[in-house]
Amino acid sequence: MSSANQVRASHILIKHEGSRRKASWKDPEGRVIRSTTRESALSQLKALREDIVSGKAKFDDLASRFSDCSSAKRGGDLGPFGRGQMQKPFEEATYALKVGEISDIVDTDSGVHIIMRTG
Hints:
Its EC number is 5.2.1.8. The chain is α+β, with helices and mostly antiparallel strands. The chain has one domain (3-117): Chitinase A, domain 3 (Roll), CATH 3.10.50.40. The chain has helices at 31-34, 38-53, 59-66, 88-96, and strands at residues 7-14, 77-81, 106-108, 111-117. It starts with 6 loop residues before the first strand and ends with a strand.
């Protein structure tokens, strides 16, 4: 696939009791994730998004501290990807953003995300 059709994005993922895989690098046993409702995951994520949008915090700083994805080690960076590589809602949200924009909350089987398109 030509890189012209690819996008690049970073994200912050908060997992919850409905997530497909109830474990993460910061919660290997999944104890916290199993007891996190989707509502509580959403309110955490909304608060993080507000801090980023208001300029109080940087996306990559918050990603590396709070994201349940292993991409947290890279400030949430997922690298470049093309269509068909990510879950559909995630892909559609990313392609709809302009570079530098941050999505609203996106729901996937993995949990709830905010996405920043970086390329």
